Amino acid sequence: MNHELRITILAFLSLFCFYTTAQNLTETKINTFFASAQHAQNDNETAAINDSISQTLQTALKENGSFEYPFDHCPFLGKIYSSDHKLRFYTWNLPLSDGTFVYGGIVQKNDGTFVALKSSKTYKPTERQQVTVNNWYGALYYQVVAMKQKKTTCYILLGWMGNNDLTQIKVIDVLKISKSGRMTFGSPIFSNEKRQTLSRIVFEYSAQYKMTLKYNSKTKQIIFDHLAPSNPRMVGVFSEYGPDFSYDAYCLKKGKWTYKPDVDARNEE
């Protein structure tokens, strides 16, 4: 091995070790913040910790190669790529004294640039409003599906929100990115069971139950538990809602996600 090649390899290894060590320290720092949130004296302190997590992560994402860095040692930090591997979502939450949560989030592009999602107060989004990155409602996204719409790409988001002690929320949302890079949540591409055109679909149900909500890449459907109250007299009281062992779906037809009742989930796998 010639002298110049040896120097090049050593320089690369030194840089790699430095980068890995720096990211490991970042993970340790983030984990320390999550641990301290469990012992926060009040909600203001929790909010400050949430900001610290966001700032620490943003600093780490400015490093070259961060889009592919696994952050495997941060179990409380949600990390998920979009189906086309062009976006990466980082989301997390911290508990507040009233049983609700404060959320944080960052959307990173595969070119390394990123946008922080700001949520000063968590809220249940309506099904018609458009949401910007500066008034994000707060959610943990666990599936992100790229789809074409009018020659542009948008992203279907499946997420969960811990609403309060009585109910929780799951959401089907859509993220659109303008040519200038502006990100917005919500777009009128959903048609519900009443044939209403909506910008997102929101499910609220009892905190005691689990709800299935997932995208099936084979059938290109969003499949979910049908929710119903335990007592017919409790219609509209979402703390009484849970799965009734039937399944519905949203199917993509002519650029719009259209409601389809009573699908056989066994045949949709």
Explain what this protein looks like in three dimensions.
The protein is α+β, with helices and mostly antiparallel strands and 269 residues long. It has one domain. The chain contains 2 helices and 16 strands. The strands form 3 sheets. Strands 5, 6, 7, 8, 9 and 12 form a 6-stranded antiparallel β-sheet that branches. It has a 6-stranded mixed β-sheet with strand order 11-10-16-15-14-13, with no helix packed on it. A 4-stranded antiparallel β-sheet has the order 1-2-3-4, with helices on one face. Strand 13 (213-216) and strand 14 form a beta hairpin. It starts with a helix and ends in a 6-residue tail after the last strand. Residues 7-19 have low confidence and may be disordered.
Tell me how many strands there are.
16
**Structural class based on helices, strands and sheet pairing:** alpha+beta
- Show unreliable segments: 7-19
Estimate the helix proportion, in percent. 10-25%
| Count of folded domains | 1
Largest sheet: 6 strands, antiparallel
C-alpha-based Rg, rounded: 21 Å
Shape summary: globular
Number of helices: 2
Order of helices and strands: HHEEEEEEEEEEEEEEEE
- How would you state the average pLDDT, rounded? 91
Q: Separation of termini?
A: 54 Å
- Strand content bin: 35-45%
